[in-house]
Amino acid sequence: MSDNDGQRFDRLPATAAERSVEGRASREEVIDYFEDRFGIASETFADYTFWEKGAGKIWIYAGEAPTPIEIEAIGMTCLRTRQEHWKPTTDFAQRFGQYATDCVIELDREQARAFAAGEDQDLEWWDGDWGYLIAAHELAGDLKPLGIGLYVHGELRSMVPKGRQRDI
Amino acid sequence: MEPFERYRSIIDDFDAFLAACERPLGNAVRINTIKGSVERTLEALDENGVAYEQADWNPRVLRLETDSPGSTWTSFHGLTHGQEEVSAVPPVVLDPQPGDRVWDSCAAPGGKATQFAALMDDRGTVVANDNNLGRISALRFNAERLGATSLAVTNADARTYSLKRFSFDEFDRALVDAPCSCEGTIRKNPDALDNWNEGHISSVSGIQKGILRRAVQATREGGTVVYSTCTFAPEENEAVVQHALDTESCRVVDFDLGLEHSPGLSEWDGETFDSSLERAARIYPHQNDTGGFFVAKLEVTAE
């Protein structure tokens, strides 16, 4: 087993059995996580590859590239692994959250506004799982994902990064 | 506006041109179809009371009637992206198809690169390059906000760009939206002419020539290269394309453009250009009430 090289993008091994870098998630584990946690069908990712650069930073990419590759970015960051609970990114939630059937918390307009501004809020009525949820609201007849929230003890904490927060 | 006097002889209705250059530009946005359809995005704007006007030439380009286009739901969701109307022209002229390998040689902050990804249904490979590391962070931010998964970002000098880092050795299409003297952005940025001088034009045109030559070399035979700038200076426009015609295997081709425009020039300041340069488009601010732009479309030919 070798260590993760933070300077380059390495494609994730297909399965844990093919793993050659200590602690690296496999493609199978990533897809299983999205399916188990959010009900996103595994076929959704059939045409995508997953990559790691930096410790536990996972990227999703639809284009062509050899592995390894040393460039600035490849597709978009989608997931943080190598911590106790895996954490999807806001941008991933906005791009793929529409395919989720589980752990999606629907907010009304005012709650959505607070979430987009990065505010934490008490939402005692949620009776689903705790942990990372996809927050969504209705926009033009669609349920549109806003980003990732952390739900614990009756409180939804907005995980929208500072640079993505907006007062709408 | 003094620097513009040199264009008096080439611009029809020069007084209307000058008057347009003095009017500020409104807010334009492009609908990002990676995140949602045109119809639903318009519905979302309607639902939230944001008024807009759809551009005749491109239903994905809107003029928004708001002072803060970044503080809308459509912007937060990445359904819309602030992008000047003429800036949406070069990707439409390049016309990338799903599955293509496309190079955006001077891509930051990413409006056109993400427009490629959207035109390709986010399928294929868009290599968005910029030589300025500081501007790369804006490019990455926009690419992720707009959900472009087919886009790879590189930081290199486009004049000596190497494809060795990839698993393919040529592109199907390339855009050279070159760094330029930005004269055409005067309505958005009233300071655009503050540092204007002919020396700057001549130094920047050398860089433009180098990037365009590399783009032609890096594109397959039969592939397409679009050259664009937001400036009026013929030294940075027709003369740069003429240099590519003289040194690389390519020709200037026609394209349709649903915006009012003038043809490219066949001569300037004693220098003559190939007559095919009249197929290029010069877009002036008074023609469509936009910023100024130059666009030329090239086909890569056999050596």
UniProtKB/TrEMBL annotation, chain A:
Q: Kindly provide the name given to this protein in its UniProt entry.
A: DUF7122 domain-containing protein
Q: Which residues form the DUF7122 domain?
A: 3-75
Q: Species name for this entry?
A: Natronorubrum aibiense
Residue span of region Disordered: 1-20
Q: What Pfam family is a match for this entry?
A: DUF7122
Q: Which InterPro entries match?
A: DUF7122
Q: Bias regions of kind Basic and acidic residues — which residues? A: 1-11
From TrEMBL, chain B:
Task: Kindly state which keywords UniProt assigns to this record, in alphabetical order.
Answer: Methyltransferase, RNA-binding, S-adenosyl-L-methionine, Transferase
What positions does UniProt annotate as the active site of this protein? 230
MF terms (GO), sorted A to Z: RNA binding; tRNA (cytidine-5-)-methyltransferase activity
Ranges for the SAM-dependent MTase RsmB/NOP-type domain? 17-301
Give the residue spans that cross the bilayer: none
Q: Which residues bind S-adenosyl-L-methionine?
A: 106-112, 130, 157, 177
The family database entries (InterPro entries) matched by this protein are listed as:
MeTrfase_RsmB-F_NOP2_cat, MeTrfase_RsmB-F_NOP2_dom, Nop2p, RCMT, SAM-dependent_MTases_sf
For biological process, the GO terms are:
tRNA methylation
The record ties this protein, via Pfam families, to: Methyltr_RsmB-F
Q: Which domain of life is it from?
A: Archaea
| Membership in a protein family | Belongs to the class I-like SAM-binding methyltransferase superfamily. RsmB/NOP family.
What NCBIfam families does the annotation carry? nop2p
Specify the protein name: NOL1/NOP2/sun family putative RNA methylase
Q: Which organism is it from?
A: Natronorubrum aibiense
